Amino acid sequence: MTALELHGVRHAFGRLRALDGFDLRVAGGEVVALVGLNGAGKTTALRVLAGRLRPDAGVARVLGHDPATLPAEAAQSFGQLVGAPLVYRELTVRENLVAAARLHGLSRAQAIESATTAVERFELGRWAGRAAGGLSSGNSQRLGLACASLHRPTALILDEPTSALDPAGVVIVRELVRSLADDGAGVLVSSHHLDEVSRIADRILVAHAGRIVGPLAPGSAELEQQFFAMVLAADSSPRESA
Amino acid sequence: MNLSGADTKFRGGFGAAWGWELLKLRRSLVARLITPLLIGLVPLASIGAVALARSPELPGTAAVKFAPYATGDLAATHLLVAGQLLSVGVLLAGGFAVAWSYGREFSEGTAGAVTGLAAPRWTIGVAKALIIAVWLTASAIISLALTLLLSAAVGGQPGEEAWQNTVTATLAALLVVALVMPFACVATLTRSPLGTIGVLIAVVMLTQILVVLGAGNWFPYAVPSLLAGMGGPDAADALQPWALATTAALAPVAILTVARQWRTLNDI
After folding, report:
1. Residue A126 and residue A137: Cα distance in Å, rounded?
2. Domain limits of chain B?
3. What's the average model confidence in pLDDT over B57-69?
């Protein structure tokens, strides 16, 4: 089953064309990494998939539905962390987690249990009773990731999930993403870190100038050189899709 | 525990949105500052203003200003002043609270985070408005109850006029709560707490101008103050039922509008 899909998506912010025929597909059970330079269109594409931005043209699908009008049944199986997390500084870490679980459709009892599990998984126990506003940026990111994923979604979007994390946090995210995919979830991760995505992704897609210009093979040698070669080639023939 | 499936008892997410927004309001600096001001300051100021008005040592210019409170039944006058204070205070308090509650979601970027949830975005927008409405109403009622108690403590004996003023003050406060709701639409439209407060200030200024020009009877934002007696008894008596109804109707219209705004938010 296709968890996440963009087909021919185009969008411009004024005169700036951010997406120019963006296509991708993430099947259930696979982790797809999206890499690209700043301004390549990665975050805009993820915002479209998250239902935060209606594109000028093209089709976006989350679990078979338009993300802008995602029905509650599908939303219960969807998670996204694109930009600011679902975290409020005046609430404690545990309150944020329980609230996120409730908003994701869990019952009160399930929410409390999933919050406890998330505190353990993300090693947030020391801060569970503290206000989220007092967390370090790394722990704040852990909390945001926990809030986006504690309901075990079957379609998950993560934008730069390890940008502020220490090595221990990176390992936690890697294990989370793999465990969700092993359970059948389709996970789309954007990142600048080629080495990191190479470890967790089943496929790597290179975005450039608002579209996908080609794949990279995870685990292959000289990923960085391949990446730049692909970007340069796309610049040479911008409408030629790999 | 099975977390992969839907919670069959989960009905539309409004309950989750309500509980979440209530928790956020309870923890907010806005509520912690405003609640004691509404509940505590209004009764104290009402008692103090009447005591001042009836003090023989009040200087001439102030005596003129306080003249409407210098005579008449003590308890009734306390409630009259409380109603007038609430007719302004609830609007300002509610306007600030709405500006914070809605505007922060955009200024902090969390409006995008509440997308794709099982609790639809519109339930969050509506829950915010209803919780602020309930909070303001409860604060106003408690404020009036404390005014009655304080009035009794300083010798006021609530008679028919005092109860009538209590009812009028409650009605005025409820109308102001209704008038707060459109600022939820403003905050969503401007996506800015400060922008919303700017509009609030502009509306207050416009209200003053229209009242001075004698056109307040038909302007919803002037109606509660006039009803509470700020324009004098004649202005209060001149209010037509349609003016009260129009003012009250702004609440459901605003809540329906904000529901639509939050359902269709884009580029967040």
Report:
1. 15
2. 14-263
3. 84
